[in-house]
Amino acid sequence: MPIHMTSPRAGAAATLRLVLAASALLCGGCAELPVGEEIDLSAVELTVFSDPDSDFTTTELLDVDGQVLSFTTDSRIVWVDTSTAWTESRRGEWTTDGNVLRSDGYFTVAYGSLDGTFAGWITRTSTGNVCDFESDGEVLDINPTNEPIEQD
Q1: Does the residue 131 lie in any domain?
Q2: What kind and span of H or E run contains 18?
Q3: Which of 74, 92, 136, 137 has the fewest CB atoms within 10 Å, i.e. is most exposed?
Q4: Which has the minimum average pLDDT: 61-65, 75-79, 136-140?
Q5: Considering only CA atoms, which of 112, 132, 126, 138 is closest in space to residue 31?
Q6: CA–CA dist 83, 69 (Å, integer)
Q7: Whole-angstrom Cα distance, residue 77 to residue 86?
Q8: pTM above 0.85, yes or no
Q9: How many domains does the chain have?
Q10: Are 41 and 31 in contact (CB under 8 A)?
Q11: Exposure string (b/e) for 83-114, b if CB count within 10 Å is 16 or more?
Q12: Angle at alpha carbon of residue 65, lines to 59 and 69, rounded to 5°
């Protein structure tokens, strides 16, 4: 019977692959987007979102901290403060279909109040909790929170 030996280098590579796979699983619903680009907001058409239960419409959606994000009609998410736009995330393209955000439907717009402010909020579809968006000016990170929207 032949004996197979594994070199230390092969073992280290296998360990690295395992660590990277575990890190991806630990992130769970987190999504890190590719590097964005600055756009001229006055030169693009923004998607208008509508609350199905009222006459409220908006082009500006909020995250848990009240940061403003918009979507262009040509499928980009925009951090309004910096005019930085992204066309895709790690897991899907930034398309909109009514109040469904991203091609895989992972995010949606929920209408209601958080800390007394009525708005359209970007939420995880599975939980209805508001997301937290952070950006260093190039990369946009999306993190889950435990903050639900109060339905008015």
Answers
A1: yes
A2: helix 8-27
A3: 136
A4: 136-140
A5: 132
A6: 9
A7: 5
A8: no
A9: 1
A10: no
A11: bbbbbbbeeeebbbeebebbbeebbbbbbbeb
A12: 25
Residue 107 forms part of a structural domain: yes
Does residue 129 sit within a domain?
Answer: yes
Q: How far apart are CA 122 and CA 132, in angstroms?
A: 9
Query: Would 21 be classed as within a structural domain?
Result: no
Distance CA(25)–CA(122), nearest Å, equals: 23
Three-class DSSP category at 144? coil
Which run of H or E residues covers position 20?
helix 8-27
Could you read off the pLDDT of 21-34 as tens digits, one per residue?
A: 333 333 444 444 46
**Which tens digit of pLDDT belongs to each residue from 122-148?**
999 999 999 999 887 777 888 989 999
